[in-house]
Amino acid sequence: MYSFLNTKRSLQERLALFVSSAQKIYPEIIGIAVTHIDDHDNLYSVYRSPDYGDNFPTFIASISQSPRLSKMRTSLEPSIIDNMLSHQSSVKRIHLRLLQSNCISSMACPIYTNGTFIGVLFINAKVKDFFSDKIDYFTTFSILITLLITDDFNNKRAFHSIVKTVLLLSHHKDPETQNHLKKSR
Question: How many CA atoms lie less than 13 Å away from 51 in the CB half-sphere?
Answer without folding.
Answer: 19
